[in-house]
């Protein structure tokens, strides 16, 4: 009887320990899920930092939208480049971080014009999908208000992570206000997705342009971001001296 009682008590302890282990594992799983969701959605409700509301570019530098391309620079600049980028692309963010100051200096010196092509390459890589297109459309709306550079720089400085939540249209509109856009047409253009069809059409042409195709190794060839071209040829922007070579 004693042995039987001891056996029953031991089984009870094992049962209690087992239940406790299950509870701990369940708590860890639930906590992990909550953390994952929170991390994925960390841009929700966030105010995008506009940084300096005044651009580092001088007053005689123009910002002009032509279709879905925005040209930034001084009239008569002897060199020009085309930059193809996606606001969600992390390598594009690194490109901006590395070369932003040098490009601004070349533009201010009248040596360079930059033609910006904002492409929705990663439109399906945000959660929910659509941030690449929404941000590109909003940037063109900002160009209409003469604030493309400020808007562009703020989005890259506060870049969301690929695969996670981007910024919604309301947040993009707030950023526009915070960089000094007062024209109500900006919010209307963002909400209506006015330039989305043009952006998608231009992107299809870009993807199918053999002059913009690059080798990515492993037999893979195609268009990727960021891509920089000068005089119709792709520039190896990984070369630290690429800008000096372009501007001469």
TrEMBL record:
Belongs to the thioredoxin family. DsbA subfamily. CDD domains: DsbA_family (cd02972). This is Integral membrane protein. Residues 70-239 form the Thioredoxin-like fold domain. The chain crosses the membrane at residues 15-38. The keyword Signal applies. Keywords: Disulfide bond, Membrane, Oxidoreductase, Redox-active center, Signal, Transmembrane, Transmembrane helix. One of its GO terms (molecular function) is oxidoreductase activity. The keyword Oxidoreductase applies.
């Amino acid at each position: 009887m004693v042995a039987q009682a001891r056996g029953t008590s031991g089984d009870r302890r094992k049962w209690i320990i087992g239940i406790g282990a299950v509870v701990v594992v369940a708590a860890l799983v639930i906590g992990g899920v909550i953390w994952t969701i929170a991390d994925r959605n960390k841009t929700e409700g966030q105010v995008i930092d506009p940084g300096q509301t005044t651009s580092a570019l001088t007053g005689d530098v123009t910002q002009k939208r032509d279709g879905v391309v925005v040209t930034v620079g001084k009239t008569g600049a002897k060199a020009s480049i085309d930059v193809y980028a996606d606001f969600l692309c992390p390598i594009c963010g690194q490109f901006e971080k590395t070369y932003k100051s040098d490009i601004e200096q070349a533009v201010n010196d009248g040596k360079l014009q930059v033609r910006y092509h904002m492409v929705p390459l990663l439109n399906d890589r945000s959660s929910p999908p659509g941030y690449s297109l929404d941000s590109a459309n909003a940037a063109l709306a900002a160009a209409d208000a003469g604030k493309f550079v400020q808007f562009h720089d703020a989005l890259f400085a506060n870049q969301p992570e690929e695969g996670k939540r981007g910024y919604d249209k309301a947040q993009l509109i707030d950023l526009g206000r915070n960089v000094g856009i007062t024209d109500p047409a900006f919010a209307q253009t963002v909400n209506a997705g006015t330039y989305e069809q043009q952006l998608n059409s231009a992107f299809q042409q870009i993807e199918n342009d053999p002059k913009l195709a690059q080798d990515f190794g492993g037999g893979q060839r195609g268009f990727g971001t960021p891509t920089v071209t000068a005089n119709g040829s792709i520039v190896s922007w990984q070369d630290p001296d690429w800008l000096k070579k372009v501007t001469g």
